[in-house]
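User: C-alpha cells for this one?
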Amino acid sequence: MNYLASAIRQFDLESTGKWFILSAVIGLVAGIGGIAFHLTGQVVQHYALAEVAHFQPGEAEAEGSIFPHDNAGALRPWMLLAVMAAGGLASGLLVYTFAPEAEGHGTDAAIDAFHNKRGEIRARTPLVKTIASAITLGTGGSAGREGPIAQIGAGFGSFLGGILRLSPRDRRILLAAGMGAGVGAIFRAPLAGAVFAGEILYRDADLESDAIVPAAISSTVAYSVFCLWLPPSLRFTPLFGKPIAYEIGSPLELLPYGAMAIVLVLAGVLYIRTFYGIHALFKRLPLPPHVKPMIGATLAGLVGLGVYQAFDQNLDALSVLGSGYGTLQKSLGTTASVAVPLLLVVALVKILTTSLTISSGGSGGVFGPSMVIGGCLGSALGQMFHEWWPELVRQPQAFAVVGMAGFFSGCARAPLSTVLMVSEMTGGYALLLPTLWVSTLTFLLGRRWTLYVKQVPTRLDSPAHRGDFFVDVLEGIYVEDVYRKDRHLRLIHEGTTLEGIVHALAESTQRYFPVVDDAGSMIGIFSSEDVRSYLYDDTIWKIANARDVMKSRVVTVRPDDDLNTALGKFTSLNVDELPVVVPDDHGKLLGVLRRKEVIAAYNRRRLDHEKQRVASQASG
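Assistant:
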C-alpha cells in the first residue's frame, strides 16, 4: 500500500491518469456499495414488512426487486406499526453507538466534511450508514436513498484519499466524486450524478468545477456496475421505465407550469420548516438519542395508518410510508389512476412522515421523498389544470415529471443536477423546456430556504477555498489601481555619502530609498535597516556612499501586474514596499506599492462582495 501511495503521489496534481484511476476505483466501490445497499434494503423489507406485516410497498417500474410481489394477505396494521418501531430502534442503536454522524439524511454530513473537515469521513461511517438506512427504509420509514448512497461513496473517496496520503484538496475532490458516483448508480442517472457532486455543495448558483470530471468518471463506472447486476430486461433502463411521448404544443403551456412553480415553492418552505422544526423538538426531548428514531418511526406509522383508514384502506395512501415510488409511478402513467384528493394528501402527509422518520435521528435520504412530494403535487395540479383548460393542458401526467424536478430544485438549491436526474430517471428530455422553466423559478423564489443546512452560499464562503479566493480576488485588481501616484519619494543619488544618507533618514519618514544614477535611473534600493549597521562606525561615514549601502538586485512590480503577483513578491522578500517601474524600462521609477495598500484593496473587495450578497438575498 505504501508503494501504491508513493506512486500515485508522484503524478502531477492535474494528471489525467491519476484522476482517471482514482475516480474509476471510487466508481467501482460506489457501484458495489449501491448493490449492497439495495440488496440489504430489499431483504429487510421482504422479511420485515412483507412477511410480518403483509405490506408490499409499491416500487418504480425498473426497481429490480429480488423478491416476487405476491399478495401475502391482508395488511396487519398493528404489526406494521411494530415493525416500524423496531426498525427505528435498531437504526438508532446502531447509529448512536458506532457513528453518530451517520444520523439524518447523510448528504449534509458529506457536505460538512467537504467544507469544514478537510474532506475527512471516518471509515466506519459508510458501513454504519448503509446498514442503518437499509433498516429504516426496509421497515417502512419514509426516507430516500440518495443520502445513504452519497455518504457511502463520499466515505470511500475520503478513505482512499487518506490511505494514499493525498492533500486535503485532492481528498475533497474524491469525496465529491464519491457522492456523484453513489447518486448516479442508485438513481440510474450518471450525468446527473456528476453535476450533483459539484452543485449540491453550494446554496447559490455556484459549482465545484474541479470535481465535475472526476465525478463524471466515477458516476459512469458506478452506474455501469450497478446496472450489470440487474436482470437483463432492466439493465440501463430508466428507474421509472420507458418514457411516455411527452410534448409541448404551445408556449402558453408555460403559464400553468409557472403557477405550479409557486405552489411548489410554498410546499418546499413547508417541508423545510416542518423538517427542522421537528428536528428541534426531538433535540429537546430529555431522552437518550438511541430511542428517538423509534419514537419518530412509530409516530410516522400512526400517521400513515390514519391516512390509510381515512381513504377506505386504499393501499396507495400508504405511499406516505416507505419510498412512495409506487404511487409516483402510477402518476406518471398514460392515464390518471390516482385521484386528486389522494395525491394532495400523500404529498402533504409525506412531508410530516419524512420529517418524523429522519428528523428524529433516523437514517435515510430526503431526495426520494422530495420526488414523491413534488411528483404527487404536480400530478394533482396537472389534473386540475387539465379539467379547467383541456385544450391547453393535454398531458396532465407531464406535470408530475416537472413537479419532481421543480420541488427538489427549490429545496436543495440544485437546479441543474435535478433537471438532469429527473430526465434520466423518467427516460426522456422531451419536457426539458418546462422542467428548466419551473426549476429555475423555484430556485429563484426559494433562495432563502434550503434543505441542506451545511451548504455555503458560494466557493468564496467555503473554508475549503478560503486561500484560493484570497488569490482570486487579488488577481482581479492591478497595481495601477492601488499605488498612490501622488506620493513624493525622496531619491538618493548613488554618490551620496553615508553621512548624507543619515541626514536624509532623519529628515524623512520614508522607509525605503531608491538609489539613482546621473540619468535618474534606479540602480538599487536600501532601507533604514540597511543603514543601521554602519551607524556605529563613524570613520566610514565620509568614505561609504549609497552604492555601498544599496542592494543592486531590485525586485519591482509593473502597473499592469495583478495584486496576486505583488503579494507573492511581498511574501517571498518579507518587505513592506516594492518599487513600481515602467514596463519597458525597469530603471524608470513611477512610485512605490505598499503591502498595506494590497491588503486594504483585498478587504474592500471582500466587503463589496458581502454587501452584494446580502442585498441579493434581501431582494430575493
